[in-house]
Amino acid sequence: MPELPEVETVRRGLEPVMVGARLVAVEQRRPDLRFPFPDAFSERLAGRRIVALGRRAKYLVADLDDANVLVMHLGMSGSFRVESGGSENSPAPGAPQKNTAHDHVVFALSTGARIIYNDPRRFGFMDLVPRDALAAHPLFKSLGLEPLGNELDGAALARLFAGRTTSLKAALLDQTLVAGLGNIYVSEALHRAGLSPRRAAGSLARKDGTPTERAHRLAKTIREVLEEAVAAGGSSLRDHRQTNGALGYFQHSFRVYDRELGPCPTPGCGGIIRRITQSGRSTFFCAACQR
DNA sequence: AGTTGCACCTGGCTGC
DNA sequence: TGCAGCCAGGTGCAAC
User: Fold this and answer.
1) Which residue ranges have CB below 7 A from strand B?
2) Radius of gyration over alpha carbons of chain A, in Å?
3) pLDDT digits (tens, 9 = 90+) for A171-197
4) Lookup: nucleotide whose C1' is closest to A102 CA
């Protein structure tokens, strides 16, 4: 399900529920997701207060009051839902009926709320690490630029992509370069920038490593599409929802993703959206206006 | 070192 | 209705 905008939407949904609350009990219903849970996972969490809930790339990072952090990744199909313990126990309009078949972790909070992690495909995972060891964590140490941070601009893209023969599509999916884009938003950002997903990533840098006009354009559209998607509450395809059950609505703003054979939305273009496969994943683009 | 393809897992949809 | 085949928002890892 989740690329950066969906993870950020989840973070914003969980933050007011989790931060300041204490974990009364954590029920871990299976030994592993994509990876085994850390030893004594539930026991180490029980009694801890959640001090902050942050995000790095597609990871959620919950700061605990014992100087550890709970790291959570949603994989392809992970989601959280909140069951309020308060008197007004009403889910958002349109909230889905509960599918509890793949509820793997249940966090019971001191406020009475429960947060349930559901993940049919189990590509997600959780880990518990000392906060000061997070940057050196195997899954964090090689993460690339945070695309909504200040570091991402044309110069940074050119520096990262210089000399690379791989496609722009593959380079943008590489989390060690820019961390947070996934299959949807790469297609969307490239279309907005008018760049072919098949173009060599290295072509965004001049010989001396300085950024081309295209590099500046791409940096701008990456930021734009992610910001717009976050503002829309992410995209709801298949089962992804916000933590209160509400649907995100950015999928209605997709210009190319999942729009094979549809008209190119670029004014005056007249092209047709095509679907191709790159590194085993679908890419959607318009060959007429994306060069 | 950079690049590519496979593997992990379940469920939903399509077409026979 | 049943079932095989394909596809899905991610990413670690082996192999070239």
Assistant:
1) A 34, 77, 101-102, 120-123, 164-167, 170-171, 201-202, 238, 279-280
2) 20
3) 999 999 999 999 999 999 999 999 999
4) B10
